Amino acid sequence: MNKILASSMIIIVLSIFYACNPDENPAVFDNTPYKIEYNGLPTPDLPSDNVITVEGVTLGRMLFYEKMLSKNSIQSCATCHVQIDGFSDKNQFSEGVEKKLGGRQAMPVFNMAWHQNGFFWDGRAASLREQSLKPIQDPLEMNETLPNMIAKLQASNQYKDQFIRAFSNGQINEKNVSLALEQFMFTIISNNSKYDRVQAGKEQFSASEERGKNLFFTEFDPSGKVKGAECFHCHSGPNFTNDDYFNNGLDSDLEMKDDGRMKVTKNSLDKAKFLTPSLRNIALTGPYMHDGRFKTIEEVINHYNQNVKKSSTVDILMQYNLQAGGLGLSSADVADLKAFLLTLSDETLKSNPAFSDPN
């Protein structure tokens, strides 16, 4: 009788243990909303067909760092979008799984929720979910087929459970992979730079930073009475980009090697036009321009100051930059402008555990 009682107690204890062990519980769909703190940034217009949930973001974060998404499982999205570098690549061109180099500098991944006019330098992806699958298939990048990627994920019990938790249909397919990656990337938000803290009244700019800010937001005066760098025309709004495509005078017609936006639109007027990048985290995301030709912020400023080149599609906003003498910024002006630009970088982005590798 005592043996029977003892056996029953063991069964009860084991039942309680397994019931309390989440790894032993069957996975169930959970649509708990993911709370995002925008803190000074406007509420973005997010897609209504991909509501951001805790489990969806968890899955997207797993996939962002998952090397199984690449051929031979040796690279992940995070290989070329490194957190400590503002989710960008310090290399001029990223190296893919076949040791081949891409033709453009990897764009940083943050504040994607406010990009509404295409993704990649040429805007060839209309949505973030569409963008998320292209590097996986690109021969110069992860060089994997979507069927192979799905097969690898389907062989993982961990991913089987997480897809069930993240999506009502629980399916491991291309669409759900893209939706999960989109959810996670929407949560990578940068809004804690010194600039943000000054805007919130928590800090003050130094004299140099304040003067640089004035240069940044002031139009060029051809009479020379007022100093202005005109940066705000293209780098406007809370994300410091107008989210549009421009030829900013990097090359003459004869020097152009990349057709840019024209590859997508097939319109010759879009030749050598590229998406205006955000200036947030500029201290973290060099080298600069679509081809990473400039290593320093000073080189970027000096380009706009006196090195803009004339071409058939150079933007009209460059009219004063093209004139003799350019903007006429002095070395002190360049230093102050750089000082302001450095206030746009968010050091907390580099170590925020919500964006880090979950493994």
Outline the structure in words.
The protein has helices at residues 2-20, 54-64, 77-80, 128-137, 146-154, 157-166, 174-187, 194-199, 207-216, 262-265, 297-307, 331-342, and strands at 245-246, 274-275. It is globular. Mean pLDDT is 93; it is low at 3-22. The chain has a two-stranded antiparallel ribbon. The protein folds into 2 domains: 22-190, Cytochrome c-like domain (Cytochrome Bc1 Complex, Chain D, domain 2); 197-343, Orthogonal Bundle (Cytochrome Bc1 Complex, Chain D, domain 2). Helices cover 33% and strands 1% of the residues. α2 (54-64) packs antiparallel against α6 (157-166).
Blueprint (SSEs and pairs):
Elements: H1 2-20, H2 54-64, H3 77-80, H4 128-137, H5 146-154, H6 157-166, H7 174-187, H8 194-199, H9 207-216, E1 245-246, H10 262-265, E2 274-275, H11 297-307, H12 331-342
Antiparallel strand pairs: 1-2
Helix pairs in contact: 2-6, 2-7, 4-7, 9-12, 11-12
Features:
Cytochrome Bc1 Complex, Chain D, domain 2; 359 residues; two-stranded antiparallel ribbon; mainly alpha; 2 domains; 2 strands
* Biggest sheet, spatial arrangement of strands: 1-2
Count of DSSP-assigned helices: 12
Indicate how many domains the architecture comprises. Answer: 2
The number of distinct β-strands equals 2
Q: What Rg do the Cα atoms give?
A: 24 Å
> Would you tell me the overall average pLDDT?
93
Low-confidence stretches: 3-22
As for the CATH topology of the largest domain, it is Cytochrome Bc1 Complex, Chain D, domain 2
CATH superfamily of the largest domain: Cytochrome c-like domain
User: What would CATH call the class of the largest domain?
Assistant: Mainly Alpha
State the shape.
globular
Q: What percent strand?
A: under 5%
The largest pleated sheet is described as: 2 strands, antiparallel
Structural class: mainly alpha
Following the backbone from N to C, one meets helices and strands in this order, namely HHHHHHHHHEHEHH
Head-to-tail CA distance between termini: 49 Å
Give the fraction of residues assigned to helices.
25-40%
